[in-house]
């Protein structure tokens, strides 16, 4: 699933291409909205909210989309060939004289009255890249269920919005706790810095083509995708196991030496077989 910085970049691309422009083409390839025609309307802009995208049009109408695991918005010039996937994967087309935005594999696509956007995003916690960011509230949300595993709590968008599976693993490494440590068992000093650290990571990467959390020249990430290669700090092999987030199991990476707390036994059903991969 895309992380909050990826969605922020998608929103910026859509906003830069369409904001202030009149639509000359509008096509929504989902049964419920197949007859909707926005041709002639001005696009007011696109804003991200956590992992959600809100594209607003004159007349008080908002297109709400979510990329989920495989969705993408691509922007093309008027004469440019579309390359985001086969035509049957296209769910939305928004075109102007100069640019065309094409939504591929969008798992969520719905129209809302702009004044009712909270119906779609009102459940979200503070947005790590948004104007509503509130670290105190984010921390209180995380600690509200002290028995919940840290990794699950970080992925719950109701606690704070924008963290995906990559940042979950990287944040747990940076604060020295396994993703299975109960949130309430996290030392107070580490818990206090967690929301601010998460925000700094996403802010640092929202303008980058390649996500980096290490600050190291030859390595982009500390643990994610690196099992069973050596930890960049202690050289212990990175481990991989599945962890649920309330909806599905997700691959989770950690260093058993640098991170304290419970973790699946290497022989358990959740633990994965791993093979070395090329360095990133």
Automatic annotation (TrEMBL):
Keyword terms: DNA damage, DNA repair, DNA-binding, Glycosidase, Hydrolase, Lyase, Metal-binding, Multifunctional enzyme, Zinc, Zinc-finger
PROSITE patterns: FPG_CAT, ZF_FPG_1, ZF_FPG_2
Protein name from the UniProt record: DNA-(apurinic or apyrimidinic site) lyase
Residue ranges, annotated region (Disordered): 242-280
Basic and acidic residues composition bias: residue spans: 267-280
The keyword Mitochondrion is assigned to this record: no
Enzyme Commission designation: 4.2.99.18
Keyword flag Cell cycle: no
Domain FPG-type: 222-260
Recorded catalytic activity of this chain's protein: 2'-deoxyribonucleotide-(2'-deoxyribose 5'-phosphate)-2'-deoxyribonucleotide-DNA = a 3'-end 2'-deoxyribonucleotide-(2,3-dehydro-2,3-deoxyribose 5'-phosphate)-DNA + a 5'-end 5'-phospho-2'-deoxyribonucleoside-DNA + H(+)
Transmembrane regions listed in the UniProt entry: none
Pfam short name (any one): Fapy_DNA_glyco
Residues annotated as domain Formamidopyrimidine-DNA glycosylase catalytic: 2-115
Organism in which the protein naturally occurs: Streptomyces hyaluromycini
Family: Belongs to the FPG family.
CDD domains: AcNei2_N
């Amino acid at each position: 699933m895309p992380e909050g910085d990826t969605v922020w970049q998608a929103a910026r691309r859509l906003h830069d291409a369409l904001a202030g422009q009149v639509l000359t083409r509008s096509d929504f390839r989902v049964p419920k909205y197949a007859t909707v025609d926005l041709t002639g309307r001005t696009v007011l802009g696109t804003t991200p909210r956590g992992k959600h995208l809100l594209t607003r049009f004159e007349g008080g109408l908002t297109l709400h989309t979510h990329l989920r695991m495989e969705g993408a918005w691509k922007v093309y010039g008027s004469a440019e060939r579309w390359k985001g996937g086969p035509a049957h994967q296209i769910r939305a087309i928004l075109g102007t004289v100069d640019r065309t935005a094409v939504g591929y594999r969008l798992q969520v696509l719905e129209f809302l009255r702009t004044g009712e956007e909270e119906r779609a995003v009102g459940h979200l916690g503070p947005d790590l890249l948004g104007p509503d960011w509130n670290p105190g509230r984010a921390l209180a949300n995380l600690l509200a269920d002290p028995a919940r595993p840290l990794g699950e709590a970080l992925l719950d968008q109701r606690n704070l919005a924008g963290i995906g599976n990559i940042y979950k693993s990287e944040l747990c490494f940076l604060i020295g706790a396994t993703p299975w440590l109960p949130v309430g068992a996290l030392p107070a000093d580490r818990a206090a810095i967690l929301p601010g650290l998460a925000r700094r990571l996403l802010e640092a990467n929202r303008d980058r083509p390649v996500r980096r959390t290490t600050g190291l020249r030859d390595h982009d990430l500390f643990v994610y995708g690196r099992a069973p290669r050596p930890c960049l700090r202690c050289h212990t092999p990175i481990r991989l196991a599945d962890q649920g987030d309330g909806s599905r199991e997700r691959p989770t990476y950690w260093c058993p030496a640098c991170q304290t707390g419970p973790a699946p036994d290497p022989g358990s059903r959740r633990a994965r077989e791993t093979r070395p991969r090329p360095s990133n």
